[in-house]
What does this fold into?
Amino acid sequence: MRQRILIVDDEVPIQELIKFNLEQAGYEVEVASDGIAALERFAACKPDLVVLDLMLPGKDGYDVCKGIRRTSNTPIIMLTAKETELERVLGLELGADDYMTKPFSPLELVARIKAVLRRSTGPDPQEIDQFEVGGIAMRVETREVVVKGEMIDLTRKEFDLLHVFLLNVGKVLTREFLLQKVWGYEYEGETRTVDVHIRHLRRKLGPEGEDRIETIHGVGYKIRGN
It folds into this structure.
């Protein structure tokens, strides 16, 4: 079965450009031109990924992202016309998995969609399925994390980040390494993405989250093994 992508953009030429390139890449495509229609189409077609413009009539992209995140962890790639750190960080804070700035390369967008989808389809069955490190228990197959007997709710990227840390206990991991492993490509100069997700992950790990994932200044992060 072909994977389904929902494109949300009020500019028809951009809709058609993205749709053409995604269909050429073998995806099934749905479209919506405003925020209200986006949430309706999302509920109706249950896409595997959403390409979401920020500037929309009805509801803006931030509201659409929040609406989707109330019920689903479906990957979201945001499109923004302004290259500002505040917009990027806000989108990530709301649960977006990635973003691109207009104008963008359709081929790069397709590559990023493939990378996000590849990492959202679940773990390789050859990998270790269960971990228990420093009071954190993880079951990879069911994507469950328990901290001191309590199940915690992680987004897909937070889970994948924690998974990489647990595979590399005690090792210092650079932001670039984490970007490559979790996002599947390199953001040149955009390591802020990692910092935002780690901040959320630490908070969800509880009062000891800051100690569990240690910042190694000027280098990156490491997770303690005890």
Q: What stands out?
A: The mean pLDDT is 85.
